[in-house]
């Protein structure tokens, strides 16, 4: 199994929805190979890693990147991490990146990753995870317990001859509410080709009110 990992540190508590997402599409190829998908995804995740500390601009709800992956193809990646507030369920967080000051106990968040134009023109994959902080694990350390819920991965395509299916249900694995993993996979199929896009998301609680989020693509 090959993995390309991206480490992000989020101000209010990342990842995952997280409402999350993967999308795949290519510009005009109906016969894209798994090797080509993996090459493009490696470029995308390297780019996301390089820009993992970018701040969300004022007035915007997410970060959007247009990432060239060769042969004239451009992949769009969008990342959002929003705090769920009473009466405003989609209020965005203040920052995205390696910030350490605003993670709070007993709060709800949603993380979403959306990727488009990796494997098939007109395809979009979205991975979303909802998560919450609880009380401190160690008193006075601002290291909070985590709970994830409702992970979901979905995909769609407008390309003739292709279908989008969900071969693996999104699920959650918890390590004593300190490190929590959510994962799911999408596949885009033709009569002769099946391309799997899988995302794994690890959210870990750290001392000082910091949430470390590690997500990766694997096949």
Walk me through what this model shows:
This protein has 219 residues and is mainly β. The protein has one domain. 8% of the residues lie in helices and 51% in strands. Strands 2, 3, 4, 5, 6 and 7 form a six-stranded antiparallel beta sheet that branches. A five-stranded antiparallel beta sheet has the order 1-11-10-9-8, with helices on one face. Strand 8 and strand 9 (179-189) form a beta hairpin. 43% of the residues are buried.
Q: Into how many domains do the coordinates divide? A: 1
Helix content: under 10%
- Extended strand count: 11
Number of helices: 1
| Shape assignment | elongated
Q: Bin the strand percentage.
A: over 45%
Which regions contain 5 or more consecutive residues with pLDDT less than 50?
Answer: 4-28, 89-101
Distance between the termini: 6 Å
Structural class: mainly beta
Topology, pairings included?
Blueprint: E1 3-10, E2 18-20, H1 34-50, E3 63-70, E4 73-84, E5 108-116, E6 124-136, E7 144-156, E8 163-175, E9 179-189, E10 194-206, E11 210-218
